[in-house]
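As a warm-up, study this chain.
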Amino acid sequence: MSKENLNLPKTAFSMKANLPLKEPNMISFWDKINLYENLRSQSKGKEKFILHDGPPYANGNIHMGTALNKILKDIITKFHQMDDKDSVYVPGWDCHGLPIEWKIEEQYKKNKKNKNEVPVVEFRKECRDFADKWIKVHKDQFKRLGVIGDWENYYSTMSYEAEGQIVRELGKFLKEGSLYKGYKPVLWSTVEKTALSDAEVEYMDHTSDTIYVSFIIKKTDVKDLEGCQIAIWTTTPWTIPANKALAYNENLKYLILEIEDDNEFKKSKVVVAKELLESFIEECNIEKYKILKELPGKVFKGVICNHPFLDIGYDYDVPMLEARFVTTEQGTGFVHCAPSHGPDDFNLCINNGIKALETVDDDGRYTKHILEFEGTHIFKANPLVIEKLKESKRLLANGKLKHSYPHSWRSKAPLVHRATQQWFISMESHGLRKLALKALDETKFYPSKGKERIRSMIETRPDWCVSRQRVWGVPLPIFVSKKDNKVLIDDEVFENIAKIYEKEGSDCWFSDDFQRFLGKKYKAEDYVQSKDIVEVWFDSGSTHSFVLEKRDDLKWPASMYLEGSDQHRGWFHSSLLESCGTRGKAPFESILSHGFVVDGKGLKMSKSLGNVIAPEEILKKYGADILRVWVAASNYAEDLRIDYSILEQHAEAYRKIRNTFRYILGNLNDNFEKVNFDKIDELHSDIAGVAGYMMMLIPFLANGLLTRFSDSFNSLATSMTSHMQSSTMAVAGEAASGSFSIGQTSFYNTNANNLSANKHDSNYTNLHGLRTEQMESGVLKTLTGRGDAIFDGTPGMSRGAISINGSSSMVGSLNQAYEQSTNVAANESQQYQTSLSNAAHRMMQLSNMSGHDMRFGEGVSSSETSQFNEALSTMKNIATDVAHRTGMSTDEAFAAMTSGGGSLHAGISTDRGVFGKALKWTTGIKGSADAHLKYDRSSTSSNRYNEGFDNAVSAKEASDFNNAFSVAQSFVQGHHFDDTHSEAAQLSNQLGTDLRDAQTASHNYDVAMSRANRISDAKSFVESHSEQINTDFNQAFPAYVKSQVGESQRDSLFSNPGDTQALHQLEGMADDFVASRRDQLIEQFGNHSDGNKLSSFYSQESSGVASHQHQLGTNFKNNSDSLKQHAQTQSLGINQSEKNAFVQAHQNNVDATKNEISTGQHHMDTKMSKQKLTSDQVKEQMKVGEYDAKTGVIIGSGLTRSFKPNNLKNKE
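Now compare it with the structure written out below.
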């Protein structure tokens, strides 16, 4: 038979994807057919789903986080489009702000160009051109990811229409009265030279100088306080020159100490809070002292102190003021107040008639108000201030503290509080806070934890500072009267400015005479024009007004906002406040937030670590579809890990999906023709044969089913009816040619050679249920008594199909699976140790803060805080004791005890002993599965981890440390703290994240190692049973092929071994076949004891087949009457008398069949009563075919091609 006559799968859907080459053509095709426009026209009038695009910043190539975000949006919009909605996606860009200004300034520096000499309008034009260039780049990059959207009608915050609408939105706040000018401390960047909003701030570790300073009491009515000094503690020594007051808490108790150490403070009387005495003594290294008096806090009312720099001109009074923000969580129980550099300080001083002066300028340098230090940059001032304090004999102690500190999210520079004139939107004056919180309750969050995160921010945030002292942005449309210093509020003026912007853009604000903005109603000489611009978060927060409300194809509010979890503080936040302030409700119905992209080990991507993967690299190597598969398969709610090993796994999954579709498409390729059976006078002889055969089967099937045969039913059935089939075919053939003969038939030996049945030529040999057919290619196909098919290529043309070296293939496949599992375990082990190390570091930081600034905000009771402090103190004390005994530092001991001194090691240990000795304790992670811990000396960073440390920790210390650890863990994981409230809240949130990461890593490790152990057991089993595995695989593979492509297609593939396409198709299926058997075997080793593994593994298939056979038999029985009637009345091309003769002639065979069934039933009852077969007996009986425990076909030894499927893993 020629290749052209084979009914093989045919499809243009290639096996190899070639995504990097083909995807660009696909995208071009989408553009050519106007796909987006066609979708819109087809969906017109349907329910709308609008995912409003949060605008990315247009200043550089996209990164993995941007790609994740855009792909997630595309998946969701396409899903709703397929859900029969009009799912519209309009992309947008954020274009104003500092990052672009910096890029232009960098170009100026390279070209030695002075920015101050460049006209503002020219500078703004360069910023606009820069943003426009990157929008075009981003469009191509996003389209290359397969994202469908309205790319020709995108929005940007620098468009003229957007700038005009932003003016209208600001006008609404001005008219309402909630936008006001105030002099307040704001977070200021001395690098960017502008104020920053909360959304532009991120907290990072920072090492600060710390000082204890004494203020000598100048005036008091309390005799005990005469001659005393007030001790304060601060992490910002540079603020001491700006000090104007001291704060105390009247509800606290204070102690007067007399220092007896032999130094400059000998005989000095120092006042500190009673609860903070211990930490004060320790950190100031005071060895000898005595307590003179205990006093209530109220005695400090009216006390006046001298400034520590009295001798260099700071001769003003420093009053002591009562303040409830003074606590015993940190410091000394007193707080030094610099009103220009802190919100609490500012409010306290203003309320007591103390003005805040401009002590630091835009660049971060001291002004003329700071004597001795004028012109010094504050970040270089600490050493100078500390030295002056020493000279003045006011420095009790100084040190260093690594803590969480606010930084600019753009420049990464540390920020300072600085009092300046700024424009604010009030959170209270018109109920903006309440409106925003109500809107959050009406919003659906994915995941739900996002709601509490943004809610806590709204509840505690200060007024919104919306002004910036830069030039690339939308100018504030504000005119202030020279006469009364009031803001001009006139709708006509606002609308006039908006229309000018919509026509020309906002550059004209900086170039034109501002009389044109005021119109004819007002005179320019009576007003001062603001030169501040609005912050970019107000820009992006207003997008709903000039995108959702302005476009007919969209709707307001949007169905969903989707961005990274950092946007709870950013775009989600500003959009909520802007919309609630102008419309009274949120601009979104739901919010979905996703995690960040990290490397395969869970570490943040950074160039310094060399772990950055750019989307462009992935597209070149794998194509966008693999990246999209990674996104779809990941948990968006958590941080998403990615590296090339992870991508390889997704690429392999993609290949299997693709080949599955290829098989389906190939089998759908057929020439479907409608046949009119009414016009056929005589049916083909093989149809007649089927009818006669079915008629003869009916009594046998009925009887067989009644006797409830099980596994051997199919074998016995074939044996009983093989002679009937031969006779039926003969009768059908002779009947079709006009002659009729039954022929010679014996029960166990029926020969019917060269039967002629309407030109249907066959060679059949039937022996005890075996029927052999020599196919045209020469390959022999034998049907066994139990229905198996045997192919033997020996008699053919030396073109066998494939033979599977089952054991070798399985071992190779198991090795690969084992390596994957252990690699995962190793990665999780590293992540576990990293997370615990981070947790130990943060716990140590918190323990050092215990008793200081431990404020956690609302929802945390004082008793919980007290228990947390006590737990931290316990752990620190134990670590300190262990450190003294071992020569380690306290930090090292704390870390060792927290992490258990070692890490998870794949395949090394199954005990829980931290040191692999009798000492059985470990910190543990609540909620995780048992992690296999083992102390590994090679992994330690210090040679001080020695036998001495093993014995240095007592059982009680271990127990106490673990109990304290559990208390601390429950505290941080049971709350989500407002991370703006205090440094402790920041650290506690980070600690909770570290511990959750450790839990996840521990669980993932257990899962991976459990699988690795099962794989190892399975591999040993396969190696010791290679002969049986080889036999089984070769028997079962053709049955697997049949299940994939059908019997006729299977026969074609096996009977044409010279066809390379057929061979390639078989190789692909063999690869999947071995993988499926591997996975089944692995799972069996997780569920059964060794003695039952093989029989259990194989019996799954046999029981499934027996069940299937039983169901078929039931169907035959239920329909036996109709089948019999149909067979008897079927038009066979013979007359009725011939039919009757045919039926009568075979009645004896039917009776013989019944007798044989009865005999077979007795035989099977005897066999099946043997319930306790050993594993070896089962395997031996399977070898000789005595026990029907599996299904499949046998491939003869004459086949010529040997094949190992696991070697094909790189083939498509």
